[in-house]
Amino acid sequence: MPIASTAYLFPAAGLLGIVFTVYLVRITLSKDAGTPEIARFSAVIQKGAMTFLRREYRIMAVVAVFFAILLLVVLDVYIMFTFIVGVVTSVLAGYVGTNIATRANGRTAFAARKGAGHALDVAFSGGAVLGMTVVSLGILGISTVYLTFSLLRVVPNPLTVMTGYSMGASFAAIFARIGGGIFTKAADIGADMVGKVEVGMPEDDPRNPAVIADLVGDNVGDVAGMGADTYQSYVDTTIAALILGGSATTVLGARLGQKGIYFPLCVLVIGLLGCVVGVVAVKVLAQSEKVGPETVLRLGMVISAVVALLGTLLLSRLYLHDLRAFYATASGLVAGVAIGLITEHFTSGRPVDVIAASCESGAATTIIAGLSVGMRSAALPMLILGLSMIFSHRAWGIYGISLSGVGLLSILGITLSMDAYGPIADNAGGIAEMTRQHPRIRRITDRLDAAGNTTAAIAKAFAVSATAAAALSLLTAYSEVAMVKSLDIRDPRVMAGMLLGGALPALFSSMTLSAVGHAAELMVTEVRRQFKEIAGLLEGRAAPDYQRCIDIAARSALGQLVLPCLVAVASPFAIVFTLGREALAGFIAGNIVSGIFLAIFMANAGGAWDNAKKRIEAGAHGGKGSLAHLASVVGDTVGDPLKDTAGPTLNILVELVAAVSLAFVPLFLRLIP
Amino acid sequence: MPIASTAYLFPAAGLLGIVFTVYLVRITLSKDAGTPEIARFSAVIQKGAMTFLRREYRIMAVVAVFFAILLLVVLDVYIMFTFIVGVVTSVLAGYVGTNIATRANGRTAFAARKGAGHALDVAFSGGAVLGMTVVSLGILGISTVYLTFSLLRVVPNPLTVMTGYSMGASFAAIFARIGGGIFTKAADIGADMVGKVEVGMPEDDPRNPAVIADLVGDNVGDVAGMGADTYQSYVDTTIAALILGGSATTVLGARLGQKGIYFPLCVLVIGLLGCVVGVVAVKVLAQSEKVGPETVLRLGMVISAVVALLGTLLLSRLYLHDLRAFYATASGLVAGVAIGLITEHFTSGRPVDVIAASCESGAATTIIAGLSVGMRSAALPMLILGLSMIFSHRAWGIYGISLSGVGLLSILGITLSMDAYGPIADNAGGIAEMTRQHPRIRRITDRLDAAGNTTAAIAKAFAVSATAAAALSLLTAYSEVAMVKSLDIRDPRVMAGMLLGGALPALFSSMTLSAVGHAAELMVTEVRRQFKEIAGLLEGRAAPDYQRCIDIAARSALGQLVLPCLVAVASPFAIVFTLGREALAGFIAGNIVSGIFLAIFMANAGGAWDNAKKRIEAGAHGGKGSLAHLASVVGDTVGDPLKDTAGPTLNILVELVAAVSLAFVPLFLRLIP
Fold first, then answer.
1. Which of A79, A601, A602, B219 has its CA 20 to 30 A from that of A4?
2. Does residue B251 belong to the interface with chain A, where contact is any CB pair within 8 Å?
């Protein structure tokens, strides 16, 4: 197929996005780095985060090289190439985003002296670097690889090699998420269990040896990990849409040809534009200081969504001359927003009060209430996902389902910015506390941090919805390419695959939870040791050994990183070579059903426990120090690894399994008759 | 089809089973009821249990009458009739079983004076009444209804009306399980949280006001509830096998005709025989006192399984002249035993040590460790279920899958006996404690109780496996009868149904957990009140008001019974009338995948927490009164409602949804084009 000259606009749009990102970086770095003390703490956090990321990437690189060689041997050099591009772009996005986020934290703390609006502006600009890097690199990478292979004509269909890209992004993501997830929770639990519970220090006390590790963890987990996570959703969904758009003859009636491939990319470009508008709007609104931070952030998202919707509507009319494309795309976006609102209800509405009340009768009832809320909270989102799927399929077949995913992810730039802003505000609060800033500063950063918790819950819900759309698109693409005739659930191979696929997320969560537990134990021991052995530490006369805690978190995270990743990557092969291609399709489907459920359950249970604790700390049910408070701390500690390690990792697991399956179809077709 | 004269042997076999049960009843009642004090406590427990069951059945009857009228209006009078038979036989089995179990408890405590063997004999005979009643009534009921409709010829195919029977059994089961489950855990938590934790009394202390309610709860939950649960699995699986056997032309190549219908019934009769042999063997071995109770019980199961396997082998050769039937049947039985052994590992092997060790760092890590073990423990059983499904399908198509379920359930008589024996031994221990028997007596009952915990874990695993087989058979039967053409998971209706089906068990568990929490709160308040208001209670000078605690447990259980039951019954209608017949099939499938996972997860996490606590109480990690012990009590309290209420209820939910869907197919076909 010849390339339309307009196609070069896609990489150009990606490049423009990068130019905008560079502008955001310059703005962020142009802010005052603050007092020498603030700058020093910020630098320690940055050094810790970047050192950890480099070590993590090094381990990942070793496994990736082996995997690339495997790709070269059993598939071909082109898939190996796109795989490497997928890994490298993912790493790049996470690295740049974390680098700037860890420079924005101290600047945010210092900007708070000038007022909440200024602090919000700095923190959000820092977070937006990650958001815009991810989407710009996504558009640039995908369109460039596609155009290159179209021009080179080394393969009959350039779309077939795109599966390597998708797999590369998922591959990088699982390392980043698990590594960051273990690090952040080990440090968090260590800081809380010993520093806060046993010794009775306040949050972010500089005498707490694990406090810097905790702040580093926020960055490597919630910035680098989240960036890689959403990057893979973005890439997976888009590539699945391209594949289905390019081959969706059967469902659409008429072959769309290039338009089927260009349309999803156009939607992403429009979304990018919407996000730029949204980011600028947030910055302007923040500086005007007329409304609170929650409202500013939410308005930014609404503006981006409206721009994206209107743009998609115009595009459908003028480019495709077919409004079905709009309906399909919009349904995903609407579903994502609806799921976000439901999440907000369960993690900060009445259910949180129920959990807080149950804290009065002790830790056991707290846990039961949280489990109950988490389970209930998963039902409605799954209903909405199902309805959006049916709707987008009615609008435009399986291509419509993939378009709904593209629509959902088109405004990823702004939702991810809102999410990455959270750890920056959190870090700023920590730095303010450690450098003993005026309480007014701390109040501002606390305010920003609270707003970040709400937006983070929405962004997490978005990520899960995106995973569902991406994985379903990949599943459909897999069964198209793998020429699986029957995926009937009455087929016992399909059903057996579903049962196994349903068990994998549980097995996987078990591994990540154990890893967190193990790492946290080491951290608890170390913090206890420092309190005992470093004379004068408790009285504030001696400084703790922050670096050792960072090292322990890093080492235990990195040591337990490879096994779960290997299990995830190897599982599709184990299924397909023992039970066949049909079973693998069932495996992907079962994995989606139970992975999505568990991801929502864990995210919301964890969020609800967290906020129940905050309510009690704010004075409800006896307030700080009461028995209810102790129970709520147990709930929060249980919820933390669920919502920040095990849960988010499932997003990636679900997509990785589907992406690997799709990429290796040529091998399966050759080996399994 | 004319009826072979040999067909009358089926009801005859069921009747013989009942004769054997009557013999067991007489043996049990012939034992000495013990000292007047023992007899008095036993009578109080019995009165409490029977009163609760009658009230529960009354509520159920009201709903059942409405449902029967609905059946009459939208389907026909015959389905209404079989529905009623299903409900009544289920109630009968549970009622008889509980009646005898509550008479065997005091007798067991008294028999312990003569030695462990005698006590084991009495307790097991009591439990075997439930086991044998369930299977005998099952065979008798199913074969009688089938033969009656075959003779009357009021419907073209007598198998079509059998779906009402299946639905009736599931309907009764969900009431019995939820009601019993809420009662037992409310009483248990009330007795533990106040009596043991707050006041510091030992287990089963007669001064604890909730202690009798707790013992009553064991009977209404683990005897009546478990009986109804397994009765429905037995009935559902058999009826699905009959339907598939009668219409399995396509898969089997040649129509089996009556043999396809008679074969599963023959397997059940052989299994009944095997169970009689097993029960007698246990009684003989118990009295000889040569081996420990665990070994005696396990030997009984092995003997029954071997008899059933050999009998099925002979039957396949001589009656069907086709060994494929044997392979299919045996695969289910082998899978059930394997899953039982895995369960034993996770609930009493090394994983329990890991949880116990994590108790040292507090309640939060205890919970995380238990969640992790529970999740991991579900993976292997789901793999085995998948493999057994593939194997039995290779052996003999979809009919083979249903035969594997029949094979698994053929030895239900003995596994259920082993399970019902547990609460009797537990009750005996409680009565011994309350009547202040010699410590030797308590040691014997503790020993029997511990053996019961192990066998209960195996029996629970059996029940879950049976559910999987039954639900899959029902799903297949549904799609046969409902003439659903495509159940392709790429069909968005199927996939949306799967997502929703995957969410239902979570929603449902959330409801049952909340119900337990609410009921437990009322109980805690009441127990605290009695300790405060009844003068001299703590010093043992005044008696507590046991009856009030029983009333509160009963009232709160009954008050929260109807809503979850209605949700379960109504859900298939909601799906089918909004999303269609294909979506309902997907709904059933998603429900199976996530229901089975959650059921295993909850059962094993709960069991593991329970045993971790027992290990610490036996002296590990600081023993009773240590901080680790406190943490382990939290774990146990969280695990209790998971393993005894929410988890087991899921078995029934999964089957009920499938059974209702199957029974209402004629309506769906009429209303939905």
1. A79
2. no
